[in-house]
Specification:
The chain is of the alpha/beta class. The protein has 14 helices and 16 strands. A hairpin with a 3-residue loop joins strand 6 and strand 7.
Length: 468
């Protein structure tokens, strides 16, 4: 097996990955808070971590991938640096739409899972809801209490960070000198502003609440991830992933909880992705640039073009999304499918791959993956193979389909790429209608094409279609 190197936030450097049990790598990914849609910025992370799982499988490991769904306890104050304040996001979503908190959760879990499907993201082995693991969260808090890592305030049960002297190390926090408004709590009973709630009891009107040893209430946001990751992966597991925004609060608190409950860290490797931006601006609903994967499809783009675009970047550098970059990648993705469709025509059942060339390029591909998930380099290698005049068609095809086990671009599905004669006729008719400024006919033909399973997009060269 290749030695794998990953950038570990815990140590601040790229280091060799040494699994606890080579027979099964345990991976936990922080999932969405299901109070609203997950936009393409959110999905950037899940493509990267899906590709991590695929890479480990390709490199010969079995994996167990666990992801949480936060459907209680994530308060809006974390936007200002204090996740213990503000309105519960689930209740905020319920108020916004006139639904129950349970209905909101169900609605946006479906939206998230549909986005996973469109981007060809593998379903995690365990997709667990916080509300279905309240007993586990209570038991975890009990352990911290037994080990004297907690104290009570009028707000609830609080984690005492003074009992964990290394609290600030993970995020390199200078806690004492942080500016006012940054992690400053409204709970004056806290010993330190950055002490955080494990169980909240002072909100009698909160809809989701449960009985506990500390009174009726609900868990703090950070508890669920430690409780569920250790339930399904054990007290110590291999990899924990998340966005860079999780480092200073959420994951710092998770690490503290692990020491409070078990006396040691839970994950050995912490991986964090940079953000996707939109025209160099943060993607957010307030800025009106919150695009969904389904929006891309409605605009005539294949969602897998977004996956391709994401894979041209490294998880540590993020991505600046523009419509121009997506359009360019869609063209590249279409050419890729066209190349593969042509290879399929050239290959016969009697053809046999060149084993030496196959092993050579598979080895290079493994090196790309093992070097901190260098997917951009692996895509470059893919194109190098396709353009080579020294590799036969059968070997090229086998290499492409082999690489796609990691890339997840559905490269074997080229049958739909060959445009049927009736669709091509509609394309020609539509281009003619647009040239004559007959936009009513043009729109009707677009609908006809889309109803037959194709995305439609207008370009300088006329109507282009890609399989949906």
């Amino acid at each position: 097996m290749n030695k794998i190197f990953l950038h570990n936030t815990l140590t601040g450097k790229k280091e060799e990955f040494k699994p606890i049990n080579p027979d099964e790598i345990g991976i936990y990914s922080c999932g969405p808070t299901v109070y609203w849609n997950q936009h393409i910025g959110h999905m950037y992370a899940y493509v990267q971590w899906d590709s991590l799982v695929r890479s480990l499988k390709y490199l010969g490991y079995n994996t167990k991938w666990v992801m949480n769904l936060t459907d209680v306890g994530h308060l809006t104050g974390d936007n200002e640096g204090d996740a213990d304040t503000g309105e519960d996001r689930m209740e905020k979503g319920a108020t916004r739409e006139g639904l129950s908190v349970w209905e909101i959760a169900d609605k946006y879990i479906v939206q998230f899972q549909e986005s996973l499907r469109m981007l060809n993201i593998l379903s995690p082995d365990v997709l667990c809801r916080a509300t279905e693991h309240i007993p586990e969260q209570i038991e975890l808090i009990k352990k911290m209490e037994e080990h004297n890592f907690t104290y009570k305030t009028k707000t609830g049960l609080v984690f005492d960070t003074e009992k964990f002297p290394r609290y600030s190390e993970f995020a390199h926090l200078d806690l004492e000198n942080q500016n006012a408004g940054s992690r400053v709590s409204v709970d004056v009973d806290k010993k330190k502003p950055w002490d955080f709630l494990l169980w909240i009891t002072n909100q009698p009107n909160h809809i989701m609440k449960w009985e506990s040893p500390w009174g009726v209430g609900f868990p703090g946001w950070h508890v669920e991830c430690t409780a569920m990751s250790t339930k399904y992966l054990g007290e110590t597991f291999d990899i924990h992933t998340g966005g860079k925004e999780h480092i200073p609060i959420h994951h710092t608190n998770e690490i503290a909880q692990g020491f409070g409950a078990f006396g040691h860290q839970t994950a050995n490797y912490w991986l964090h992705n940079e953000w996707m931006l939109f025209d160099n601006k943060k993607i957010s609903k307030s800025l009106g640039n919150s695009i969904l994967v389904s929006d891309l499809q409605e605009k005539g783009f294949s969602p897998l073009s977004l996956r391709y675009l994401i894979l041209t970047t490294h998880y540590k550098t993020g991505l600046n999304f523009t419509w121009e970059s997506l359009s360019a990648v869609e063209t590249a993705y279409s050419k890729l499918l066209e190349n593969i469709a042509n290879l399929k025509k050239e290959v016969t059942n009697a053809d046999v791959s060149d084993k030496t060339i196959l092993e050579k390029y598979q080895g290079e591909f493994r090196e790309c993956l093992a070097d901190d998930l260098n997917f951009a380099k692996s895509i470059g290698l893919l194109w190098q193979i396709l353009k080579s005049t020294e590799i036969d068609s059968k070997t090229k095809l086998d290499l492409v389909l082999d690489f796609d086990k990691v890339l997840g671009l559905n490269l074997d599905n080229t049958d739909a790429f060959v445009i049927p004669e009736n669709i091509q006729k509609l394309i020609d008719e539509r281009d003619k209608a647009r040239a004559n400024k007959d936009f009513q006919s043009s729109d009707k033909i677009r609908q006809d094409i889309e109803s037959q399973g194709f995305n439609v997009r207008d370009t300088d060269k006329g109507t282009t279609v890609t399989p949906r």
